[in-house]
Write a structure and sequence with these properties.
Blueprint (H helix, E strand, L loop, with lengths): L2 H14 L11 H18 L1 H11 L5 H8 L4 H18 L15 E4 L19 H13 L5 H17 L7 E4 L14 E2 L8 E2 H6 L9 H14 L14 H19 L19 H30 L2
Parallel strand pairs: 1-2
Antiparallel strand pairs: 3-4
Length: about 325
């Protein structure tokens, strides 16, 4: 490797392992919809596992937070709401003792085709973040019937959340180019505008909000849950194979990396602006791509959470 390549490799590696994590993956609404879809899937085919989830969650050390969110709910609606809150809990718990910033992503580089920077090939195989390792760890904890009850409850929430996180393309791939020689930090450093009157927003947040932002009221979540349940039922999602072990999680990350290349970065030919005031206006085709990809990934995340529960708790 040349001296120049070593210098570039060192800078990119430093950026990829920086302590500042990417933004949240999916909005609160997005994560809650994955939990709701997971509940509907399990309630139809594995109701005993729904009861097992409720039993485990009774020992969650952040129990008061859940009880506050579930106030006023009963029966099936209460249990679905519990699943929704589980899926978002690791984001709600950020900054506290249960926070693990590097668990939320598993990033690899997407080299720009139109604004290229020379990188040694080995850089493209590097990953930043610990999502894959964290998923394996937490799935094993949930599977261990002899693990402390509180630890199993926390781990189960992480399994829900990580399964949703990894479906977001910008938690698996980020652009590197001359404009962003240290990467665009999973879109956080790149700015776009949805239309001529919209305020600039970073690309990561734009994709987080693919099915809505943090409008996490019951009516909003319910409307999206019902729409996706009708438009994207499990039988129509050919990516699903029922597998949810550690190897499957890496496969999900590979899917998201491919979508980061093809959909987010438009075959590695698109990048946002480095300054908000220079943010490009996105095309109608790009907006439609985000909607279609985002909805499908949310639906997949929900059913994969159900598969993960089966993998962890089914006899």
């Amino acid at each position: 490797m040349s001296t120049k390549h070593r210098a570039v490799a060192g800078l990119v590696a430093a950026a990829m392992t920086a302590t500042t994590p990417p933004a949240f993956a999916w909005s609160n609404q997005g994560h809650m919809v994955t939990g709701a879809i997971a509940y509907d899937d399990l309630a139809r085919s594995s109701p005993a596992l729904v009861a097992e989830v409720e039993k485990i969650m009774a020992s969650h050390p952040d129990h008061a937070r859940f009880e506050k969110a579930l106030a006023g709910y009963s029966g099936q609606a209460r249990t679905r709401r519990l699943f929704e809150q589980m899926a978002r809990w690791p984001d709600d718990a950020r900054g506290g003792s249960f926070d693990h910033p590097a668990w939320h992503y598993w990033l690899r580089l997407v080299p720009s085709r139109t604004d290229p920077i020379t990188l040694p090939p080995r850089m493209l195989a590097l990953t930043a973040g610990e999502a894959a390792e964290a998923y394996a760890l937490n799935l094993a904890t949930v599977r261990d019937a002899y693990a402390p009850a509180a630890e199993r409850a926390v781990a189960l929430c992480w399994v829900f959340h990580l399964t949703g996180d990894v479906q977001q393309p910008l938690h698996a791939g980020h652009l590197v180019s001359k404009r962003f020689p240290l990467s665009d930090r999973a879109g956080q450093s790149a700015f776009v505008r949805a239309n001529v009157v919209a305020a600039p927003v970073n690309l990561h947040q734009f994709w987080d909000d693919a099915i809505g932002g943090d409008e996490d009221g019951d009516a909003n979540v319910e409307a999206v849950r019902q729409r996706l349940g009708g438009d994207l039922p499990r039988a129509d999602l050919n990516e699903l194979n029922g597998k949810a072990d550690a190897a499957a999680f890496r496969d999900w990350a590979e899917e998201s990396l491919a979508l980061a290349r093809s959909a987010v970065y438009q075959d590695a030919a698109f990048e946002g602006a480095a300054r908000p005031e220079a943010a490009p206006i996105l095309t109608p085709d790009y907006l439609l791509t985000r909607k279609r990809v985002g909805e499908r990934r949310i639906a997949l995340g929900g059913h994969r959470i159900a598969d993960a529960v089966r993998a962890a708790l089914a006899p």
